[in-house]
Amino acid sequence: MSNRLKNTLMCTSLITVAMGLVAPTAMAAIVEGKVTTGGAPVEGAIVSIDKGQTTSTRADGSYRFANLAEGEHTLSVSYVGAERKTATISATDATPTAYNFVLGGDDERTMDTILITGQRGSLFAGINQQRAADNLVAVLSADALGQFPDQNVAESARRVAGISVANDQGEGRYVIIRGLDSSLNSTSVNGVRMASPEADTRSVALDVVDADILDSITITKSLTPDLDGDGIGGSIDIKTLSAFDKDGLFFKAKVDGIYSESSDKVTPKVGITVANTFLNDMVGVAGSLSFNRRDFTTTNKEADWAYDFDDAEFELEELEMRKYEVVRERLSGALNFDFRPTANTDLYLRTLYNSFNDNEIRTRTTYREKLDRDIKIREETQDLWSVQIGGETRIDAITIDYQAAYSHAEEEEPDRIDGAFRLAKDNRTSVDFDLSDPSLPTLADTNADFFNAALFEFDELEYLNGLTEEDEFAAKIDIKRDGNVFGTSGFVKGGLKLRLREKSNDVASIIYDGHENDLILSNFLSGVEYSLDNIGPTVDYGALSSFYFGNTSDFEVNSVDSAIASFASDYKATENIYAGYLMSQMDFGTALVTYGARVEATDYTGKGYITTAYATEDLANAADGAPNGVIVASDVDVDDNEGTFAYADYQTARHSYVDFLPSLNAKFDINENLVARGAYYASIARPSLKHASPSSEVELDGGDYEGTIGNPDLDRQQAHNFDVGIEFYPSNSGVLSLGFFMKDIEKPIAEITYSDYAALGVVFKEASQFVNLEDANVTGLEFNYQQSFDGILPGVWGGLIVGANYTLLNSQTTYTNEDGTTRSIPLPKTSDNIGNVMFGFDKYGLDLRAALTYRSEYLDEIGSNGRDRYFKDRYQVDLTAKYALTDSLQMVGEISNVTDESEHAVFKTQLGTGLSQYDEYGYTAKFGVRYTY
To answer: What is the pLDDT of residues 119-168, one digit of tens each?
Structure first.
């Protein structure tokens, strides 16, 4: 995009917003009410008045028109899955005129079932909220969240058009919108940004949050000025339950058993949700609590390769065989209070708590020049909680929203142990591999000594305690005035927001490289089942752990390696964001235009250590003398005064910048069944708080330096985003849509892996760093079709439900190699093809669903020497079956990953393709009962 076009868009938006601030025409009549099914509220119904001004109902079914002319008006309400209803009312300026709609005619019970429960209910709820939105959104209701065998929020979100997930240990972890890296998304709960518990990313791993405590998930693909500007991919808002969203007392309970094929174990999953209103609907209380445990194993194989491009040769340098034994527990809870002291004021207190415990034992055998057998024993706990207090006050045509929130996230890794045994030097010989399939090599005939536990000597043990913490305080106020803008119905809205974020990582590591006695593997011997190859004898985690804690003083500490591992991981960062926006909306009856601009000012400070290890001879030969920083550890031979020194240099990086972010969203109701949309918005994506800090992690592995290098020069990503689309709603029971989008991304961020890289005063055999690439372009087509055949097909066939969505992308950026040549590459972590297909049946109390999800391969890491890492394409099949025993009691059976699909990553070069990582997880089955009142 040319600079002239960018400047024109920005100036046009600013001038338009300023013109839109013309005071609305003074009118006093107010019409408000609710849309229900005779009891339960209906969200997303479109209410129009006089075939002109329109609005949509909120979660509690309420709608409101302010500043109308006095006199007679015609109201109508439409909802996919129900017949349109109209009414004539008379409005005065004395008091608000109330009118409530009941959808469903005489058979309210049947209509309530269709709208609120089952596959049709979840289908209609999502379609209506999408249709009613001013911008491009996709919504998963509470019912939709329960229609698939999903274990967490991330897995639920992947059912939406253009959405996929990045997996970890076979579970969905990060949400990917339109194939783009999850770090380009913003994630919030009830409109408040969530802190991230992980040290090196802004992305919120949504496997922490159990889907059972949620009311809905809204994924926004085109931003408006009242939303945070850091959402190049889009924004994800998770909403928890309000008692006013239900009709009186609401109770739901579930009890499940989870069976994991890989571990052959059954574990529990339970959840309960309760909501009710009191004091004549003045006070509402809603709470959810969920717990689940999953025991499973992962069979893994990883490799590294040595490439010689000059001689056109490559060889397998290292092959790792890994077995993970994992126990994951989630405890999620939400407790929300709502208070309506007057008819024009709503107050609320929202609380959310999630605890995620990941207990992992990793057994590994590494075949290379030096043969290792090691064990990792670690328990990782992530806690995430937030508190939000706020409200909404309506004064005639003015609506004031106000909110203050605090969010905390932490990840603790206490008492982690990594212990390794190495084959004695005298017994080492070369290792032979079968490379008939380089993408999944196997071990060939080898020396019998490789499998003799008595020949493996103690090599190294690391004891680690780590803690990552992130806190964010946010406060905002939004003021909206309804009325006429240039003689057209609409509103003007503005607001201010403050976000103060702080993040730190603190690691204490002790590395032992010897013991006063000769320890051998046969003293700590175990074995694991491993289907991919011959993993050989392994380390018993219980025996090694008990021995270490009982004999800690007998181990020999490597003070230099310990200092480097500890100081290099520590960092602290603060980020203050000050935002303000102005926007306006004009409702032309058949066209709705929303436009405005947002300004965000960012102040960032990052502090961390640059750590290096120097041998005495390196210091003597260094042209620039001793490195910066202070000596934090040393290992010196007293007799010859030679040894190794660890230096730590504490540094600070500061960045301040201001972003002007205009946007324009237009919606055109061509007729009752056809809607067209267009959108433009500017957005940003700030770099990881850690990656932009000077902290650098350096690891000594067999005398070779490896690690990650911080980049204080890392800049934010900026993007201009365009969307056009058309939506067709046939037969009042489905949707067919097609959209085109384009993103022009400046300075995209990617991780680069360097070989033989000079930095921090040493030469790294391998080092990774996040850098800004040259500008990238993304274009895409998005197709979505969802249809219920109830009322279309006769008899049993009316229970059929089908859904399909597909996203086709083309992304491109340029990377400059170490030799100065350039090459075109896809945008990292971006899949070119994403699709979902679903077939369902919902009738006679029977609810069946089969779902297929697919994503094509994507570039994961860029190699500076032309060795890029790709994740291969993957599909997954999931099945769900439910049967209603009574109106309240339901039996459920689910199977995810039916065909046991693996995760497979490979290195790609001009010389060929070789294995990087391969994982097998097996399938997971769930069976249980649901009770709803």
So the answer is: 676 677 777 878 888 888 877 766 555 554 455 666 666 666 667 777 76
Reported as a pLDDT band with limits 50, 70 and 90, residue 107 is: very low
CA count, 13 A, side-chain hemisphere, 263 = 20
> How distant is the alpha carbon of residue 232 from its chain centre?
14
Residue 581 has which token pair?
């926006």
**Span 3-116 CATH architecture:** Sandwich (2.60)
pLDDT band at 21 (very low <50, low <70, confident <90, very high): very low
One of 1.10.510.10, 2.40.170.20, 3.30.1490.20, 3.90.230.10 is the CATH number of 131-932, namely 2.40.170.20
In DSSP terms, 543 is beta-bridged to none
Q: Would you state the pLDDT for residue 8?
A: 44
Domain boundaries, given as residue ranges, for the chain: 3-116, 131-932
How far apart (Å, rounded) are the C-alpha atoms in residues 209 and 189?
Answer: 11
The pTM of this model reads 0.87
Alpha helices in 172-220 (DSSP H): none
Comparing CA positions, the residue from 296, 290, 177 lying closest to residue 241 is: 290
Q: Count of H helices and E strands in the chain?
A: 8, 52
Q: Tell me what the pLDDT averaged over the chain comes to.
A: 85
Of 642, 655, 762, nearest in space to 703 by CA: 762
Mean pLDDT value across residues 868-882: 92
**Phi, psi at 9, each rounded to 5°:** -60, -45
Task: Report the distance separating Cα 621 and Cα 243, nearest Å.
Answer: 72
The answer to whether 595 and 13 are in contact (CB under 8 A) is yes
Q: How far, CA to CA in Å, does 784 sit from each of 45, 58, 733, 835, 836?
A: 21, 24, 14, 10, 9
Helix (H) or strand (E) holding 541: helix 541-550
Please say if the pLDDT value at position 610 is more than 90: no
Q: What DSSP character marks residue 446?
A: -
3-state secondary structure of 377: strand
